[in-house]
Amino acid sequence: MIREYRASDLDRIMAIWLQGNEQAHHFIDANFFKNNYELVKLLIPMSTVYVQDIDGTITGFIGLTENYISGLFVDSAYQHQGNGQALIAKAKQQHNELFAHVYVQNTAAIAFYQSQGFEIDSQSINEETNQPEYLMACRVEHNVKIGKCAL
């Protein structure tokens, strides 16, 4: 089930966040994520966060700042089971368009977002990591059954 974030979820969310970043971003020094851990921990409650809760275990989460996906992470043991897709679907229910930055070297994430109807909008350099990234965008057509990003 997907539900809204609770304060008691924070430690589990942060564990998934750190594991996911270290796994997906091998091209960035792992200390970068460890050094930003406390800052992200402060920022998470300021976002709109939905968690995938399976029988009391948080398996993933999506953080939204308005229509921007500030984070989408699924525990590695629960990937490729539809959890990320369900979290994106929840975000699509709430917004007419969605955006996300994805590192160019994170080809698995790019493929995932494209499978969910996102397209590459532009490319830039991330100022904190100096790594190239794409801005990916999805226009959501509500109440339409045809179309890549339809609900």
TrEMBL record:
GO-annotated molecular function: acyltransferase activity, transferring groups other than amino-acyl groups
Domain of life the protein comes from: Bacteria
Keyword Metal-binding: no
Pfam families named among the record's database cross-references: Acetyltransf_7
InterPro entries per UniProt: Acyl_CoA_acyltransferase (IPR016181), GNAT_dom (IPR000182)
Keywords attached to this entry: Acyltransferase, Transferase
Domain N-acetyltransferase: 1-141
PANTHER family per the UniProt record, alphabetical: PEPTIDYL-LYSINE N-ACETYLTRANSFERASE YJAB (PTHR43800)
Protein name as catalogued: Putative acetyltransferase
Record organism: Orbus hercynius
